Amino acid sequence: MNLFDFEIKDIQGNNFDWSTVRGKKIMLVNTASECGYTFHYAPMEEIYQKYKDQNFTIIGIPSNDFGGQEPGTEAEIATFCQKNYGVTFPMMSKVVILGENAHPIYKWLKEETTMDVAWNFQKYLIDENGNIERIVAHRIEPNDPDIIAWIEGKE
Fold first, then answer.
1. Using CA atoms, how far apart are residues 60 and 38, in angstroms rounded to an integer?
2. Are strands 132-136 and 123-126 parallel, antiparallel or unpaired?
3. What is the distance between the alpha carbons of residues 126 and 131, in angstroms, rounded to a whole number?
4. Which position among 11, 29, 35, 117 bears the catalytic label?
5. Which pLDDT score is estimated for 103?
6. What is the pTM of this model?
7. Local structure of 135: helix, strand or coil
8. Count of alpha carbons within 13 Å of 51, Cβ hemisphere only?
9. pLDDT in tens, 95-138
10. What DSSP state is assigned to residue 92?
11. Does pLDDT of 84 surpass 90?
């Protein structure tokens, strides 16, 4: 299995079309609007703008699992991301990440890596074929030199 085997809805409630990102490197990030790491949206949008035409994308997946830091509706989340950070990368509907009710993508991520998500803004670096290459801790900013080297294929 790989990331493209799963269904997920975008923040507008439509089925996300994986063909729009197939063949690209993906930074998959669980997000939250009221987290101390919410400022990560700004560098995420910056690197998305810089590399989106170079076979790279970011997918944000909101969750309220950590400290109740994403209490809003999808519409509120979308408005917050646009108004405060100008987010244009794909955002998905809010999902459960932890436990038996976790979204199938997060169940797969846990099975493949044998690790639960530790906190908001944990990053999964996914290769062009939908396979997990690396997990990046929530405290590491998305524009970290190691991540940029991965995006650019220089590692």
1. 12
2. antiparallel
3. 5
4. 35
5. 98
6. 0.97
7. strand
8. 24
9. 999 999 999 999 999 999 999 999 999 999 999 999 999 999 99
10. B
11. yes
- Cα separations (Å) of 65 from 1, 22, 103, 114, 116? 25, 28, 12, 19, 12
Map tokens 């079309």 to a residue. Answer: 17
Residue 155's pLDDT is 75
Distance in angstroms (rounded) separating the CA atoms of residues 46 and 79? 18
- CATH architecture of the domain 25-151 equals 3-Layer(aba) Sandwich (3.40)
What residues contact 56, with CB distance under 8 A and at least 6 apart?
A: 24, 25, 26, 27, 47, 48, 151
- 81: annotated active-site residue: no
Residues 17-23: contacts with CB under 8 Å, at least 24 apart: 18/130, 20/90, 21/57, 21/59, 21/90, 22/128, 22/130, 23/55, 23/128
Q: Which two tokens stand for residue 64?
A: 């309220």
Pairing outcome for strands 123-126 and 25-31: antiparallel
Q: pLDDT tens digit string along 36-71?
A: 999 999 999 999 999 999 999 999 999 999 999 999
Per domain, the residue ranges of the chain are 25-151
